[in-house]
Structures are given as C-alpha cells and as structure tokens.
Amino acid sequence: MKTKLGLLYGGKSAEHDVSLQTALAVIKALDLEKFDIYPIYITKEGVWVKGPQLTGPVESVKSLILSAKDAMSPLEIRSTGQVSKEDGEGFDCLFPLLHGPNGEDGTVQGVLELVNVPYVGNGVLASSAGMDKVIMKNIFAQAGLPQVKYTWFIRSEWETDKDRAYDKIEAELGYPCFVKPANLGSSVGISKCVNREELAAAFVEAFLFDRKIIVEEGIVAREIEIGVLGNDHPKCSVAGEIIAKKDFYDYKAKYEDGDTAMVIPAEISETDYQSLSEMAITSFKSLDCSGLVRADFFLTKEGKAYINEVNTMPGFTPFSMFPLLWKHTGVEYPQLIETLVNLAQERYEEKQKIKYSF
Fold first, then answer.
1. Which segments of 143-263 does DSSP mark as H helices, in order?
2. pLDDT value at position 255?
3. Under a CB-based contact definition with an 8 Å cutoff, are residues 38 and 47 in contact?
4. Would the pLDDT of 305 be above 70?
5. Where are the beta strands (DSSP E) in the chain?
6. % the chain with pLDDT above 90
7. Confidence of residue 57 (pLDDT cuts 50, 70, 90)
8. Quick one: angle between helices 124-131 and 133-142, nearest 10?
9. In this structure, is the dihedral angle defined by the CA atoms of residues 263, 264, 269 and 271, taken in order, positive or negative?
10. What angle do CA 287, 226, 111 make, to 5 degrees?
11. Among residues 218, 184, 183, which one has the least CA distance to residue 199?
12. DSSP of 5-37, one letter per residue?
C-alpha cells in the first residue's frame, strides 16, 4: 500500500520562497508508485491551504502557490491511524518543508503533535531550541561543546542604551564580529562588522527580522558541515566545506549569486573528521533531535574546532549541502526522503507507547 504523504511548505517567514524551492525539489524526487502526495501550502499570512492529490510532475513553484480561498484549519489534519484509509482522509506522514520562524521553530511541530500525526524531522523542543541561536548556544555550552565567544541583546535593551551595547561587544568580542537575528536561517539579516559604524548599521538590519539578536566573535577558520541522520542512534555523513568567494556566506551568496563553492568530501584529516563527528552527535543529542540536522563547524588552521550551529531543517534541494553530503555517503536523494519518512513513522510509533492516563 502506498504511503499517503502531506507536504507542508511556504510559511509565514522571510524564508517562504526558499521553502517553495525545497518543496518543488522533493515533489520531483518522490516516487508516485510509492507515495500519494498532497500539497499543503501555508501563505505568507499564515493561512493553510490543502490542495488535491498530485497525479503528475510539477514544473514550477508557481504551481505550488494555492489560493487562500480554499483555506483549511491546521486542526483538520488527521493521521490515518485515527480514521479509516478508505474514507480518503488522514495522512500516514507529513513532511514539513518549512524554513525559519513559524515553521522550523517548533510552532508547526506543536500543531502536528496536537493532532497526533507522524511528521518528518525534529520535535517541538529541538526545533525551537535549534531556531533560537542564543538558547542553542547556551545548551551547547552546558554540553561542553567548544564555541566562539558570543553575546546577545533584545531590541528594547538596545534602544535604551545603544552605546552600552556597542561598548560591551568591543570589550568582550572585538572586531571583526558577526551580528545575526537570533531566530532566522538561510543567512538572512547577517552582517560582518569591523568598526562601530558598521556595528550600529548591523543592529538596525538584524532587528528588522527579530526582537533578539546574537553577536559572535569573528575568527579565521574553514567552514565545515556534517549531516546527521537518525533518531536514538544517529549517524554522520562525510564532511563538506563551504568556500565563500565573498567575506562570508550571506543570503545573496547562498541563493542568488552562486558565489560559493562546496567541497565534498572536505579535505580534512581523519582525526579532525572523528572529532567533528563526535561533536555533531553530541549536539544532536543535547537538543534531543530526531530525523535530521546539519551541524556546522569552524576549523582553524591550528586544528581547533568550534561548533557554530545546527540547522534542524537544512536546505533540502538536491543541490543543497545536506542532501549532497548524504549522496557522497552513499544515500541518493529519493532514498534520503524515504529514510526520513521511515524515521518519522518510527518515532511516532515510539511515542504511542507513552502512557497518558493512570
């Protein structure tokens, strides 16, 4: 029997368009002999729209933008475990292909937990902690993972005394430093600063996207990434390296200019790979992740490794780093998608063993 799979994409996020690209790539890779595919589009205003079953190829993201007049309540979603498959309702699994706030941050995962449907990827806690870079880094610190120096601010604190914020950064981190929205991905709103004037402009930019920002020490290092796949017993892919032609890997370099190169596998020693892999697994377990993450690291020429962050829903087109890492590890893109669906159902079945009454 085929798996009835719902694809959640779009979302009320600055990364809405990235999500559409991801959804298109996944649809093209899915085997229609194995899956019945249903699109569920979330508009930029947060309206959920369920489309009819896909019976053929989808050629463009425009076809994935569904009319809000067919809106549904997220609470209408059901698992086939709760209703008869013969009635045409319910899903065997949902695949949230959402990036950024209101999708990758635990909000949608909370809805899917409430309606008790299997879904791909990380749960509420891992998603929310992984989205908030400050919370994530605090958890990593508790787990003993090495990190570059960092500090953070909320908008009201900065508006009350801007010079105090800048003084703190100059005293604790120095230049260069990186200013980022705490709750965003895809390198949106990130600025590199080498003086106070740039720092002030970077704060204004980052606060456009979040009420909380994080500022990190800038170091000279290679950017190494590793894919992690699994639930209770996660495994690591080969390592890859991001080589940016610009100062750093910003949104424009990532999605518009193609001003980056990905080297897979990364040219690192076996000792470095083992160290980074252990850190990747530790980060995965410290956030109680499930399904997938991409763990990102800095590696200095002296061999010192720092964890930068994990991405709980990394870029997922066939040309994104996470799928490419697994391709070079021996897992092709369609197989990767099927593995994630299987992991989602495995985790769901495990959760059904929990006793909620006495």
1. 155-160, 162-172, 196-206, 251-252
2. 45
3. no
4. yes
5. 3-10, 35-42, 48-50, 71-72, 93-96, 150-154, 177-181, 191-193, 212-217, 222-230, 235-244, 260-263, 291-299, 305-311
6. 81
7. confident
8. 110
9. positive
10. 40
11. 218
12. EEEEEE-SSTTHHHHHHHHHHHHHHS-TTTEEE
CB 3 within 8 A of CB 35: yes
Name the amino acid, one letter, at 175. Y
Q: Which of 208, 210, 216, 189 is nearest to 309 (CA)?
A: 216
pLDDT tens, residue by residue, 29-52: 999 999 999 999 999 999 999 999
Residue whose token pair is 């990186």 = 178
What pairs with residue 72 in β-bridges? 48
The two structure tokens encoding residue 241: 């390296």
Gap between the terminal Cα atoms of the chain: 36
pLDDT (0 to 100) of residue 3: 95
List the structure tokens of 48: 């959920």
**C-alpha radius of gyration, the chain, whole number:** 21
Q: Helix, strand, or coil here: 170? A: helix
Do 321 and 265 meet the contact criterion of CB atoms below 8 Å apart?
no
| pLDDT recorded at residue 243 | 92
Q: Which residues of 94-109 are buried (b: 16+ CB within 10 A; e: fewer)?
A: bbbbbbbbbbbbbbbb
Planar angle of CA 325, 277, 313, nearest 5 degrees: 50
